[in-house]
Each structure stands twice: as C-alpha cells, then as structure tokens.
Design brief:
The chain is of the alpha/beta class and 297 residues long. It has twelve helices and eight strands. The longest helix has 17 residues. The structure holds 3-methyl-2-oxobutanoic acid. The site of 3-methyl-2-oxobutanoic acid has 12 residues, from strand 6.
Length: 297
C-alpha cells in the first residue's frame, strides 16, 4: 500500500521548513520553547494545522467522539484509525505525525502491541504512536521503541479507561493518586517514551512532573507548567456540540457558522435563488440551435 504523501504547495507567507522529529521535541524542552500540538482526523484540517506551523499533529482516538459520533473512544478500531491517519498524512508535510493506538490494540499482548504500532508507520504514514497507561504498559512501550517506533505516553484522564475511572473526570487529585502518576511517568520515561501527554490533572502536579522528567510533557487540562499543549481541534473550533471540557478554550464557533451556512443554502434552494448564471455551465448558442433543429424543436 502506498503511503506517499502529497506535497502541499507552499502558500504566501509560508517559509520552507523542515520536518519535526522527536529530536526537535527534546531540543524545544531544553530551550524552554513550548511545543504545539493539535488533533486532526482528515486531509483539510491536517493541511491547515501544518500550514499554521504546529510541531505535531495527533490523530487521536477522540476521532470516535468528535467525528464518528460514539459516546466514548472505546468502539474505535485500528482500521478506523489507519484510515484517518492516511488522510492526515496526505495533508501534513512538516508536523510530527502521531497515531493514537485504539482500545485493545496494545493491551492483549506485547507482540500484538508491536505489530499494531508498526501498522501506523508502515500503512498510514505516521511517525510515532501514542498509547495510554503507565507502569502496566512499560514492557509494551519498551518493545515498540526497540522496534524503532517512537512512543508518546498518556497519563491522567485516559479516556480508554473511562469505565474504570467512573467518567470523564479530573485525575490525580489526592496524594496517593498523584504519587501513582509520578511513578507511572518515571516508568514510561525509563521505558523509552519520547514525550508524555498529561490530561486533566492538577497544574502543580503536572508542572512538578515536567520539571523532573527529561522528556517533554504535553498538557491538556494540566496547566501552563507543561512543556507543550494540545487540544482536540473540534473543541477549539467549537465544532463538537455535545459538551466542552472545562480545560478547553474555544477559538471559534464553527458549529453555529456551519448551521447558518446550511440554513442559507436551504433557503436559497427553496426560494429558487440558487443556482444562478454564475454557477451555470455555458453552451454556445450555435450548438444549442443546431441541437434543437436536429430534435425538430
Ligand atoms: O484522542 C485524543 O485526541 C487524545 C488527546 C486528548 C490528547 O488523546
């Protein structure tokens, strides 16, 4: 299967820039420069994020909720993920591309985890994978990394464990839960993750962890002390109507923009205001007259 990337044109205002690698992540942490990341699930969004100069694009399994309409991320399959990763890979040229390993694609066995991680690079144009969990995933992380595949960890609110966590709620708010997160973070770093997502955890804990780890942390609902930030793009754009987590800042209200555009088009069709001459396909008069003559009209 070809994973060759289409080369999007350089647009006005853009400069030639290279490909972000996991090395750039490390360098940015060292230099104290924030790492930027957003989620994408399709070609046009990936293109726009890439052109905006982001360091990384995560094809998150949040796909299941914000694009596929599931109540949580559990029904998302590896085939769903690979399909959307391919679309993103066609749109993004520079950002580091990270494919989120879906529920049950890495939990059954380390061998299966390695094989499935490989599919993201081999079949879907990703540069790295992300998986959820701490110490219990350390061996899978170690073996995936040993196969040459960069791994991003994910701690705190880990949506694939929503049934165990009792809902989408902030994590690590007690001393013992915070200590467990710290132990998990060190275990993941030791296993070879190149970066770690911290989701919906106390800001002071995330800052402490970020200062102690050598790998960069990427926060989502984890405060300003992380080495980088990520949001789900549909939340940022106001495209997901079901709920907006407290940690989201909405930069647009595209759901209402979309609704208004749909209403206007419907109104134009019903009032016969669309299409107009501007949208019509022209036919030369002599061609039309000749046809009418042939038809005996
Ligand atoms: O699936 C996803 O989009 C994620 C982000 C919230 C980090 O895991």
């Amino acid at each position: 299967m070809s994973t060759e990337r289409a080369k999007p044109k350089i647009v006005a205002g853009e400069t030639e820039r290279g490909k972000t690698t996991t090395r750039v992540f490390r360098q940015k942490k060292k230099a104290g420069e924030p790492i930027t990341m957003l989620t994408a699930y399709d070609y046009p969004t990936a293109l726009a994020i890439d052109r905006a100069g982001y360091d990384a694009i995560l094809v998150g399994d949040s796909l299941g909720m914000v694009v596929l309409g599931y109540p949580n991320t559990l029904p998302v399959t590896i085939e769903d993920m690979l399909h959307h990763c391919r679309a993103v890979a066609r749109g993004a040229q520079h950002a580091l591309l990270i494919g989120d390993m879906p529920f049950m694609s890495y939990q059954v066995s380390v061998e299966q985890a390695v094989a499935n991680a490989g599919r993201f690079l081999q079949e879907a144009g990703m540069d790295a994978v992300k998986l959820e969990g701490g110490l219990e995933r350390a061996e899978a992380v170690r073996q995936i990394v040993a196969a040459g595949i960069p791994v991003m960890g994910h701690l705190g609110l880990t949506p694939q464990s929503v049934n165990q966590l009792g809902g989408f709620r902030p994590q690590a708010r007690t001393g013992s839960a915070a200590k467990k997160l710290i132990d998990d973070a060190f275990a993941l770093e030791e296993a070879g993750t190149f970066s770690l997502v911290l989701e919906s955890v106390p800001a002071r804990l995330a800052e402490w962890v970020s200062q102690k780890l050598t790998i960069p942390t990427i926060g989502i609902g984890a405060g300003i002390g992380c080495d980088g930030q990520v949001l789900v793009t549909h939340d940022l754009l106001g495209l997901f109507d079901r709920f907006t987590p407290k940690f989201v800042k909405q930069y647009a209200s595209l759901h209402s923009v979309m609704g208004e555009a749909f209403s206007r088009f419907k109104g134009d069709v019903e009032a016969r205001r669309f299409p107009t001459e501007d949208q019509n396909v022209a036919m030369k008069d002599e061609q039309w007259q000749a046809l009418l003559k042939e038809l005996g009209e």
